[in-house]
Structure formats: C-alpha cells, structure tokens
Design a protein that fits this description.
The chain is an all-alpha fold. The protein is built from one helix and no strands. It has one helix spanning 3-29. The longest helix is centred in the first third of the chain and has 27 residues, at 3-29. The protein starts with a helix and ends in a 23-residue tail after the last helix. The mean pLDDT is 81.
Length: 52
C-alpha cells in the first residue's frame, strides 16, 4: 500500500473512532431516556368523593 492510501485509511479510521466516541458520550448523557414507569399495585384507587 502506498503512503497516501495508508494515510487516508488512518484518517478514515480516526474519524470513525471519533464519531463513535461522540455517539457513546451522547448516549451516556441521555440515559435514562425517560422517567421509569410508576409502580402500582394493579388496583384502582377511589378518588376523593368517588362512590363505589
């Protein structure tokens, strides 16, 4: 492989690695993506003033 192609390959690999590092960083910062679901007993609770 000639020197220019080797440099191009190295540059490509470096850019790809940097992109993957950026994705990992953003992914870590966004975790958790949302609040966890609330835990319930599975029973409906009567609201104040509700009959039955």
């Amino acid at each position: 492989m000639n020197h220019q192609k080797e440099n191009e390959k190295n540059n490509h690999n470096h850019k790809k690695r940097k992109q993957e590092e950026e994705i990992d960083r953003i992914d870590e910062e966004s975790f958790p993506a949302s609040d966890p679901p609330p835990w319930t007993s599975g029973r409906k609770h009567k609201r104040e003033g509700e009959k039955g």
